[in-house]
């Protein structure tokens, strides 16, 4: 899998082995902090509403505001890191995120809290693409797969531990202080990340120009950044807030139009001899296109699982928020181990690891449907979900980080941050669409049938269909790789996935 992306294009890419692992741990701690800020807040919403006398709309925006700004700034932040230095943009993101966490924890009213959450999302959007870009920058070959494996472990633990930690903090602090602690817990973590980054990150943290590229002021492509940000916002907003007004769905075609305008602008910008925000030739690399589709479909389906499980346990079986949070812990721990295991082996087995993970996810979904249906008939306990969801944990660990390794393997380092951010933007859009569509289908089924077991079975069935689509693309990518290998072996022209991008 060594290719264009493995070429060392900057002397700053060369650091000692011990040094690069220290850098990785700083990245992972910050990424954990940003991801847990999504799941930890879910269980705090009732306390936030009581403590601030917030409306349902205010509570919705505590989640939606963070998700929207996170998704909007990702690609622009990734490109800024590519051009001006990933370490410096990462540090900036940690500072913004930590200050916003303090503001959120001390918010006197719902408007102040939501403003802080918007800024928190910006901080998360700044730091996350730098994590992916710096793994690409400082790790090669099998070490890169191992590093992305640790990345996947962090994702798994953050998703599973967040609700439990949120429940514990609310129990500890009570209804008034508890929800504030779910934000303030980020402060010591953020300060630690900042101190270690300033101590361990290679210098300079920021640079005026990228290696061999035009000046950043000319190459950052502000028009492209604005167009793409507006396109992502217009696409995500109806799915996040569309229940409040049917008129908001008119933003969806506007988002598509803005996306088309962005593509045309990027083509024009490159034709003038400048480096665009995203080199659209990355989509001619089949491994990148296939992998990006796989991860978007995966997040479109699988992130709804934990929303449905929490609703089912609390509304359908009467469990507390803390009990509902614990149901995901075994799956999260298994996911963390599976991600590390898969990361060490992805260079050897390639796309087969991802295919295996998707199959495990499908098995977990099917078994979970069986548990829910049998529980409704009084034949088994709902706690059997601990076993069925463990298969989903294996799937998550074997899909997310190995797919990231394979998808970015042939991307040039000059576009490592922005290309990783394109993938993450697809994840955010997929998550927004999936949660909106799948939960709506589950609630509609509940309204007709009056049965939580039927509603959850329908929701999980829809997720299974989306995962089957991701599996089809995984098999397609496996076929493309085999064809490319055969073409190279027989001495024909290099396949698209092996050709360097022209800039």
TrEMBL record:
Swiss-Prot/TrEMBL keywords: Membrane, Transmembrane, Transmembrane helix
GO terms (molecular function) for this protein are: transmembrane transporter activity
- Name a Pfam family for this protein: MFS_1
Looking at the keywords, is Membrane present?
Answer: yes
Kindly list the places in or outside the cell where this protein is found, as annotated in its UniProt entry.
Cell membrane
Occurrences of domain Major facilitator superfamily (MFS) profile (ranges): 23-482
Query: According to its record, how does it sit in the membrane?
Result: Multi-pass membrane protein
On whether Acyltransferase is a keyword of this UniProt record, the answer is no
Which GO CC terms are listed, alphabetically?
plasma membrane
Q: What is its main location?
A: membrane
Q: Which Gene3D superfamilies match?
A: MFS general substrate transporter like domains, Multidrug resistance protein D
Q: What is this protein called?
A: EmrB/QacA subfamily drug resistance transporter
- Species of origin reads Janibacter cremeus
Q: In the record, what lineage is assigned to the organism producing the protein?
A: Bacteria, Bacillati, Actinomycetota, Actinomycetes, Micrococcales
């Amino acid at each position: 899998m060594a290719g264009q992306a493995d070429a060392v294009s900057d002397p700053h890419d060369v650091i000692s082995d011990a040094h690069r692992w220290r850098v990785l741990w700083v990245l992972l701690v910050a990424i954990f902090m940003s991801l847990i800020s999504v799941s930890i807040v879910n269980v705090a919403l009732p306390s936030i509403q009581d403590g601030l006398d917030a409306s349902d709309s205010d509570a919705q925006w505590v989640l939606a505001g963070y998700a929207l700004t996170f998704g909007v700034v990702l690609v622009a932040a990734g490109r800024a890191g590519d051009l001006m230095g990933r370490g410096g943009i990462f540090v900036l993101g940690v500072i913004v995120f930590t200050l916003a966490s303090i503001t959120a924890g001390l918010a006197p009213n719902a408007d102040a809290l939501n403003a802080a959450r918007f800024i928190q999302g910006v901080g998360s959007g700044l730091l996350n693409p730098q994590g992916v870009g710096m793994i690409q920058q400082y790790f090669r070959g099998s070490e890169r797969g191992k590093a992305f494996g640790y990345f996947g472990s962090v994702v798994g633990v953050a998703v599973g531990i967040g609700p439990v930690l949120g429940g514990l903090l609310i129990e500890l602090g009570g209804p008034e202080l508890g929800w504030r602690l779910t934000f303030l817990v980020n402060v010591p973590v953020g300060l630690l990340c900042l101190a270690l980054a300033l101590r361990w990150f290679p210098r300079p943290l920021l640079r005026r120009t990228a290696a061999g590229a035009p000046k950043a002021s000319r190459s950052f492509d502000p028009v492209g950044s604005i167009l793409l940000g507006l396109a992502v916002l217009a696409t995500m907003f109806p799915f996040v807030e569309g229940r409040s007004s049917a008129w908001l769905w008119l933003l969806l075609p506007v988002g598509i139009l803005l996306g088309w305008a962005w593509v045309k602008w990027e083509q024009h910008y490159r034709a003038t001899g400048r480096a665009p925000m995203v080199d659209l030739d990355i989509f001619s690399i089949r491994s990148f296109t296939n992998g990006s589709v796989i991860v978007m479909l995966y997040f479109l389906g699988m992130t709804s699982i934990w929303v449905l499980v929490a609703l089912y346990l609390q509304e359908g079986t009467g469990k507390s928020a803390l009990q509902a949070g614990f149901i995901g812990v075994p799956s999260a721990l298994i996911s963390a181990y599976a991600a590390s295991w898969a990361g060490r082996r992805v260079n050897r087995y390639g796309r087969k690891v991802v295919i295996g993970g998707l199959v495990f996810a499908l098995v977990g979904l099917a078994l979970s449907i069986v548990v829910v249906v049998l529980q409704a008939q009084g034949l088994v306990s709902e706690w059997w979900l601990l076993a069925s969801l463990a298969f989903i944990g294996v799937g998550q660990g074997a899909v997310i980080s190995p797919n990231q390794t394979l998808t970015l393997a042939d991307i040039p380092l000059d576009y490592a941050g922005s290309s990783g951010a394109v993938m993450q933007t697809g994840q955010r859009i997929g998550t927004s669409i999936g949660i909106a569509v799948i939960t709506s289908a589950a609630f509609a089924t509940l309204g007709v049938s009056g049965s939580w077991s039927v509603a959850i079975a329908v929701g999980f069935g829809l997720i299974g269909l989306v995962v089957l689509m991701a599996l089809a693309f995984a098999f397609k990518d496996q076929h493309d790789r085999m064809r490319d290998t055969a073409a190279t072996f027989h001495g024909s022209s290099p396949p698209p996935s092996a050709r360097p991008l022209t800039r």
